[in-house]
Design brief:
The chain is α+β, with helices and mostly antiparallel strands. It is built from two helices and three strands; from the N terminus they run E-E-E-H-H. The protein has a domain of 37 residues. 31% of the residues lie in helices and 17% in strands.
């Protein structure tokens, strides 16, 4: 069940409530009986383990592309007779 955060418009207190998706939102503060406003909270969803883009593919494409690009530049310069900075 998700945890929802509410803020009281009267006293400013923040409270958390574990509710089902189908439950109606809370409307009254338990401290001062003021009106509650539902807050948007940061998600705590994390992709862990292998099999996700972040862990398996994100860095490989960049490093492979960079090294292939460098090799292609060196081959092109070698075939045209240009000198590289390393030469």
């Amino acid at each position: 069940m998700p945890i929802y955060e509410y803020e009281c418009l009267k006293c400013g207190k923040t409270l958390e409530a574990m509710q089902k998706f189908s439950d109606p939102p809370l409307t009254q503060c338990s401290h001062c009986k003021g009106e509650l406003h539902k807050l948007i909270s940061m998600s705590t969803f994390h992709l862990r383990g292998s099999g996700w883009y972040v862990t398996d593919y994100s860095g490989k494409n960049q490093s492979c592309s960079a090294s292939k690009g460098e090799a292609t530049k060196k081959e092109t310069k070698a075939s045209t007779g240009e000198k590289t900075a390393a030469d």
